[in-house]
């Protein structure tokens, strides 16, 4: 397209990228079309299908003709179920007026950054980070400020690290625990130090709790539940990982009342509400008090052990992730520093598909992300294949 072309996309789109993971997916597809078996550890989805009781709730909603426009913030039974869950599991005491249902966690994050960042505002976050975060921040005209996970991992109090990144333009901190891609889980002490710092410096916190139900040995802590934090925290949740509902596109956000008008305007003008029957199914999922999530966690633990042991044996440097379902392994000694080349090498030699660490920020270089959210059979085949690396 030439510069004088009148018909062209708006320049704001230059601030948005495409996920590099698509490139990997295409590469995997290419191999599969050639008849090769690829051990797919590059994905980010739960290994099991959506539970039957949620599908049944969806069918019932359709049979009940729950197919009309709904209030754009969410239907009453879902908001009620979310309120009870946030009180029981997250220590967040909210009313329906503090809640909004979104098109998955991604849409909630889009709204959260649009809501909080003015042009030039800086937002601090830990890196490597989930790839879209940087784009969502720059699309909101915010400025990303990264702190390497490696710098803070072994610290209890994060104040000094945060202080070194503070500037007159600092506006927010994005917190993702458990973390994609690193599997880090911030301790209570670390979260308390972030909370203190946010209060002292009048910063907003955007808390991405997509993996709240995948903490192995320990308790998930919602930073918005810490003293003095609710008023300055936008807490983002999704059903994608907790209920194997990635394709349903439903999530939600909790925040104090002064944030809500803006969030409602954003939701109204982007999606005007999540599909009505989906919301009824989501209500059934969130209201569930069975041991589903416990069993799911056990399934992940079993899978984690297989992959961690195999990766360590192959000479990758990694410890068992404390949360989420990814192994973020340092592969420098075996496959070099260039993570795209390392991904290719691993794919060529073992037929294991992974994600180059640099996709998640410069601090990810020299690493590969491998998901253990797949069948035991695939993980055992990957373990056998890694022996031949
Ligand atoms: C850290 C993190 N946050 C949010 C999301 C959003 O998920 P969804 O849009 O499917 O709810 C994901 C999905 O992979 C994620 O990894």
Total beta-strand segments: 12
Rg result = 21 Å
CATH uppermost class of the largest domain: Alpha Beta
Which parts are unreliable, with pLDDT below 50 for 5 consecutive residues or more?
Answer: none
**Portion of residues within helices:** 40-55%
Overall mean pLDDT? 96
Give helix and strand order, one letter per element, not per position.
HEHHEHEHEHHEHEEEHHHEHHEEEH
Count of the domains: 2
Name the CATH homologous superfamily of the largest domain: Type I PLP-dependent aspartate aminotransferase-like (Major domain)
Identify the bound ligands.
pyridoxal-5'-phosphate
* End-to-end C-alpha gap: 45 Å
| Order of adjacent strands in the largest pleated sheet | 2-8-7-6-5-3-4
Biggest sheet record: 7 strands, mixed
Q: Per the principal axes of the C-alpha atoms, what is the gross shape?
A: globular
Amount of beta strand: 5-15%
Number of helices: 14
Helix vs. strand class: alpha/beta
The CATH topology of the largest domain corresponds to Aspartate Aminotransferase, domain 2
Structure in a nutshell:
The protein is α/β, with parallel strands linked by helices. It contains 14 helices and 12 strands.
How would you explain this protein's 3D organization?
This protein is of the alpha/beta class. The protein folds into 2 domains: 134 residues, Alpha-Beta Complex (Aspartate Aminotransferase, domain 1); 236 residues, Aspartate Aminotransferase, domain 2, CATH 3.40.640. It is 41% helix and 14% strand. It is built from 14 helices and 12 strands. The strands form 3 sheets. The chain has a 7-stranded mixed sheet with strand order 2-8-7-6-5-3-4, sandwiched between helices. It has a 3-stranded antiparallel sheet with strand order 9-12-11. α8 links the parallel β5 and β6. α2 crosses α10 and α4 packs parallel to α5. The chain is globular and about 55 Å long. Bound molecules: pyridoxal-5'-phosphate (PLP). The site of pyridoxal-5'-phosphate has 13 residues, from α4.
């Amino acid at each position: 397209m030439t510069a004088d072309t009148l018909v062209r996309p708006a320049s704001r789109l230059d601030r948005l990228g495409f996920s590099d993971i698509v490139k990997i997916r295409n590469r995997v597809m290419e191999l599969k079309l050639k008849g090769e078996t690829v051990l797919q550890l590059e994905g980010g989805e739960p290994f099991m299908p959506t539970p039957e009781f949620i599908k049944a709730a969806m069918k019932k909603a359709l049979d009940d003709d729950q197919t009309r426009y709904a209030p754009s913030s969410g239907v009453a039974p879902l908001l009620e179920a979310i309120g009870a869950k946030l009180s029981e599991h997250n220590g967040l005491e909210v009313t329906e007026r503090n809640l909004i249902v979104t098109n998955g966690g991604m849409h909630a994050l889009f709204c959260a950054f649009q809501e909080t960042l003015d042009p030039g505002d800086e937002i601090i976050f830990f890196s490597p980070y989930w790839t879209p975060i940087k784009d969502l921040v720059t699309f909101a005209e915010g400025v990303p400020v990264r702190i390497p996970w490696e710098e803070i991992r072994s610290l209890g109090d994060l104040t000094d690290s945060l202080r070194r990144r503070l500037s007159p333009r600092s506006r927010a901190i994005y917190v993702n625990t458990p973390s994609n891609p690193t599997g880090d889980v911030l301790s209570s002490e670390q979260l308390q130090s972030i909370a203190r710092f946010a209060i002292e410096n009048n910063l907003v916190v955007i808390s991405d709790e997509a993996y709240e139900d995948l903490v192995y040995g320990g308790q998930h802590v919602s930073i918005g539940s810490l003293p003095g934090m609710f008023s300055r925290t936008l807490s983002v949740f999704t059903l994608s990982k907790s209920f194997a509902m990635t394709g349903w596109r439903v999530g939600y956000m909790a925040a104090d009342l002064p944030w809500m008008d803006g969030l409602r305007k954003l939701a109204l003008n982007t999606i005007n509400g999540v599909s009505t029957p989906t919301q009824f199914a989501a209500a059934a999922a969130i209201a569930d008090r069975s041991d589903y999530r416990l069993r799911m966690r056990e399934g992940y633990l079993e899978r984690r052990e297989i992959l961690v042991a195999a990766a360590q044996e192959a000479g990758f440097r990694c410890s068992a992730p404390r949360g989420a379902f990814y192994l973020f392994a340092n592969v420098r000694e075996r496959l070099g520093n260039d993570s795209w080349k390392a991904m290719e090498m691993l794919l060529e030699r073992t037929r294991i598909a992974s994600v180059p660490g640099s996709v998640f920020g410069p601090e990810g270089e020299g690493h590969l992300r491998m998901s253990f959210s797949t069948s035991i059979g695939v993980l055992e085949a990957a373990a056998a294949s890694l022996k031949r690396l």
